[in-house]
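Subject: Sanity check before I submit

Could someone independently write out the structure tokens for this chain? I want to compare against mine line by line before I put it in a report. The sequence has 206 residues.
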Amino acid sequence: MKIDVVNLEAKNVGSIELADEVFGVAVRRDILARMVNYQLAKRRSGNHKTKQIWEVSGTTKKPYNQKGTGRARQGSLRSAQFRGGGVIFGPVVRSHAHDLTKKVRVLALKVALSSKAADGKLVVLDKATAESPKTKALAAQLSKLNLANALFIDGAELNVNFALASRNIPFIDVLPSQGANVYDILRRDTLVLTTDAVQALEARLK
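---
Independent answer below. Compare away.
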């Protein structure tokens, strides 16, 4: 698959051949859904917690006699049926992460890249660099490219000025190639890859 390469001035500066085994995979929504669920579950803190009866601060004394009162027998005022008592089977601190095989994770990234290419939402940039960390200058360049909601993926290292300039532009994300992931690719409308990113992703996924 051949695609044009542009620069930040929205000028065509050549073309690049994209590997079909990375950017031409059949789009599978089920694989994307599994991967997004995997990522979101893994990032959950899981720190929701309620107190059980043994954790509630309060008396350990039996509320009243077992027999003779005509009321239901009670063993503790910290039981769940009393105001301020513990919660039965409430949430506890735990990890929500679940396993997903490496083969499926690799396929999901290929499918995400291929879906952007198939939808015409893939842009290849010669390089993502900025002369100064000024947001206004970069925002003007992005408007020329009609990029209002995009994820930029660069090579192994980001250009410092570009990263700083883009940080204050809403709906614009910048990641190094090793940080490329399915969730961030899908949450932005356009995927912008530098030529270095294309080489790095193809080497990683082939």
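---
OP: Matches mine. For the report I'm noting this point. The two ends are 15 Å apart (CA to CA).
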